User: Fold this.
Amino acid sequence: MSMQTTMKKRIFLSACLAVLISTLFCGCKVAKVPAVTQSVPYQVAQNYFVRNDVKGLPPTVIRNEAEFEKNFGMATVMGPNGRPTEINFNKSFVICLSEAPTNINTDYSIISLSQTAAGQLAVRYAVKRGEKMSSTMQPLMLLIVDRKYDSLPVKLEPESTNR
Assistant:
């Protein structure tokens, strides 16, 4: 073979290799959409408990009063804030954070409730576990959310901490 033919083959192979590499790298690029989130207002419902005849965990999303009453009871106590929070299911729905009964003192605190760019309601919350108790409890937090967000799927994002 002549030197010119060998050189043409090398140039051709180099060009093919360059096209292949650039195709691979360009094909791997994914357009990243910024994760824009919008804060969603909510109210924490006070003075409710999971009924002891509920099998398993209550549903994460509750859209009507009948379903709510099937899963939760009212825990009225003395004092100015002793009545359970009123929930109007014509204007709101409820997001439930709960887990199985435990003898470890467990509290939830909401970090954020937001609508994600992917069209979900993301509930970020902290789970604080404390001392072992002589009785059991079923951890519970109920969030009352405006019905305009009802069509969005709910994603729970717990962050566990120990005291």
